[in-house]
Amino acid sequence: MSVYERDRNALVEAVADSWGEEVAYTLSQLLPPAGSRPAAQADVEGVLVALDAVDARLEGRIVGLERRFDGLERRFDGLERRLDGVESRLDGVESRLDGVESRLDGVELRLDGVDSRLDQVEARLAGVEDAVATLGHTLATLTERIDGIVHRVNADAERRFTDLVTSQTRSLMLSLFGTVVVIAALAFGLR
Known about the structure:
Blueprint: H1 5-19, H2 21-30, H3 41-103, H4 108-189
């Protein structure tokens, strides 16, 4: 049964006569506009199907992100192995330099040459330490960005779902309330 604007106005006038202008105004604000229809079970099921599709798409994206994370972890593992190799090579260099230092204790001119070589090795070690620090910072930045993306995707999906459910619930409640008011008005006000 369609409710026309004149029927709506008649209901508001009847409520105003029975319960007062303020109640009638409140009722008119709560009634859905003429010609609108409440959400049906099929509408709700359609929304649920759409939400399932969104959930499936998000699941696919999450699986893709997890694969990318796995790839990043493998790359970082490879970098760690390479750094371990560099450290062992540097340990070998350090042990060789220790042997050179013990042999060159008596020769001051040669010791000056060894000192300059040690300074170069320290500079290289500092460069390696800087590279490791930069890599750690880059990893932290990537982790924060990925966490932000995941958070935004989750928040957006949750907000859309909440908005959709709230809108449908509000429409359903207003329609039910309008129906109760019409029935009450018909039962009490039109005798």
